[in-house]
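Entry:
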Amino acid sequence: MSETPNQTPAPDPAAVPAPRGPSAKQLGIVVAILAGGILLTALTSDVRRVSEAGVRLVEDKPFLAEQLGDWRGGPLSGLTEEERRLLPSDTEGARRVYRNSTSNELACSVVLAGRDVTSIHRPELCLPGQGWSIQREFTEAIPVAGAPGGVLRVMRMNSLRTVPLPNGQSARLHSLFLYWFVGKNRVTPYHWQRIFWTTRDRVFQDTNHRWAYILIHVPVGPESPDTPQLMENAMQLARNFVQEVYPTLLPR
């Protein structure tokens, strides 16, 4: 037995509205956006003034003290060869590995921009290239003498990396990373806020901030049932180190 489907009358072509192009208001918005982009590019393409750095410099390079309370630093080094190859030529850096009296170890590095704003980037962009997977990312407030309001907000990244072992197996290593950005009279853990300040001051003050970012790395160790507590212990070490290092980073 066959069934005849219901016949739906074809729509009347005259009743179907003709396609409409963008309205005058929509065209105006597009033109305004394009004009704003052109104007912004023109105004910021040749910024003449470069602000002072927001961190202490010695011979125009970032300074990291050797002794910071209970922390003693190893040899001072700068940017790696790979970093120098990738970053603008006027980028500067400083790096030390520190150890305290109970043999806890961490690394601290400072990267300082020159005229080129591409010198500074978020660590979230480079850590995955080094094999790190960021498990959690959020800000922490650390009481710090000399910070605005007595509190420094830093970005915290709980990170994980899988490494091969000689026996053919692998281990999951945990680490803690903290960072924040520093400009002249400006401190923030947020990349978007740094970009906002940079753009605003390039447009309205003809000034390019010589930003720096400070990165602290605290190794936590292989994954274990104690990893959550070990991660908090690492944060306490980092908190203590930040309280020691922050005043020494301020320009003199």
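The first helix runs from residue 24 to 44.
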